[in-house]
Design goal:
- A hairpin with a 2-residue loop joins strand 1 and strand 2.
- This protein is 69% helix and 7% strand.
- The radius of gyration is 17 Å and the shape is globular.
- The chain has 178 residues and is mainly alpha-helical.
- It has one domain.
- 28% of the residues are buried.
- The protein is built from six helices and two strands.
Length: 178
């Protein structure tokens, strides 16, 4: 969130045309690849091998995935590291974009970095089979409290989704309103 506040003056009035939207789309899509590479790197750091890295289409947007079935043999803390590493790598990717944007003075790249941060944060909301869901699942399962997952997911969604909606609204408002 601090990074979003730092980038806001650079992105306040960036006109978004087809070319700019394509750049944002391509770079944020690349951030999904960095996200999956983060899961794989963490799994390998714990001495396990990864499966295939793949790509697909979910509804209308591209998705990447990496098979990390070997993470089931890890301890609770190690599973947490593997699960959180995707968002961590995605934020690092966004930070590289943001740094470059600030160095060259590119409002478009700064806005792209904002979207990368928003998408990384969104992955941590425990929605159906997202990284946040698996984080909560593995943390609760390691403590024998799997039954609490439904209540925790509901509470987290009630808190996080309105915050995420507010952030997305503000970014879109800044993009679309001169």
């Amino acid at each position: 969130m601090i990074a979003l506040l730092m980038l806001d003056p650079y992105t306040a009035h960036v006109p978004i045309d087809g070319h700019a939207a394509l750049i944002i789309f391509l770079i944020t899509t690349a951030s999904f690849l960095a996200h999956e590479m983060g899961h794989g790197a963490a799994l390998r750091a714990h001495g396990q091998s990864t499966g295939n890295l793949g790509v697909g289409i979910y509804l209308v947007y591209p998705v990447f995935f990496i098979e990390i079935f070997a993470h089931e043999t890890l301890s609770g803390v190690e599973k947490f590291r593997v699960n959180i590493s995707g968002a961590h790598f995605q934020v690092l990717f966004g930070s590289a974009i943001a740094t470059f944007a600030l160095i060259v003075g590119s409002p478009l790249l700064a806005q792209t970095a904002e979207w990368v941060y928003i998408l990384a944060f969104a992955q941590l909301i425990p929605l159906n089979k997202s990284d946040g869901y698996w984080l909560a699942h593995d943390l609760l399962a390691s403590r024998g409290k799997e039954k609490a997952l439904g209540k925790l997911t509901l509470v987290c969604n009630l808190i996080a989704i309105p915050i995420l909606a507010f952030v997305i609204y503000n970014v879109l408002y800044n993009m679309l309103m001169p």
